[in-house]
Amino acid sequence: MTELSAETVQRRLAPRAVRYYDRVDSTNDVALEWLRTGAAAGSAVIADEQMKGRGRLGRTWHTPPGVALAVSVVLRPEAAQVAQVTMLGALAIYDLLEGTGLNDLGIKWPNDVQVKARKICGVLPEAAWDGDRLLGVALGMGVNVRMDFTGTELEDTAISLEPALGRWVNRLDLLESLLDRVDFWYARLGTTALFEVWKSRLTTLGRVVTIENVRGVAENVDADGALLVRDDAGTLRRLLAGDVAFG
């Protein structure tokens, strides 16, 4: 029997407003619609199976049932705080994993939490606007719990929590802990403390990186989360997004 069900999720997470689905196209889609119709900050959409999850740079993926966490949380930050929401998601997942006893954790810029340099999660914040007025943000998070990457093209670059720990974990416990950490960092959104902790956990700084057509040394990040790369010609480039390759 799966750890996640409408009954177990509602009981464990009360009084938080939650919507649970055995199967959904995208938790972010549901969260964005709920946000527009008045969902309170902290409201969460959870799915056991996600058919059309979205990632950065327009990627999509399928999360099979029983193997991961697929969660979107409604947040209502100030417009000036939106850049920190992606940091918030990465920090919440980092804390969750650290709490299980995992070590050798790091955040590959901007928000890929990694275990032994292998990706274990995805984070995608999507904002809803009414003209130039921010309505809120749906913070989508996916955590590999027991997905098996053996024999796939991701075998050397992705990892799941249970193989990393060498033991079974209860996804309902993980879900509760993840949402607690989201609440913790949401209360600190817009602060220097959140930014500094995120920066301290990055594994990208000081290394030679290639992002799109830019190659150079990742020297720093700014308050908006942009990566500052000194390219091979000596020019400091400010990059807002892109896949990082090392070396």
Structure overview:
With 247 residues, the protein is of the alpha+beta class. The chain folds into two domains: 6-200, 2-Layer Sandwich (BirA Bifunctional Protein, domain 2); 208-246, SH3 type barrels (Roll). Helices cover 26% and strands 35% of the residues. The protein has six helices and 14 strands. The strands form three sheets. Strands 1, 2, 3, 4, 8 and 9 form a six-stranded mixed sheet that branches. A five-stranded antiparallel sheet has the order 13-12-11-10-14, with no helix packed on it. Strands 5-6-7 form a three-stranded antiparallel sheet, with helices on one face. Helix 3 packs across helix 5 and helix 3 (85-99) crosses helix 6 (192-200). The longest helix is centred in the C-terminal third of the chain and has 16 residues, at 171-186. It is globular and about 60 Å long. The relative contact order is 0.15.
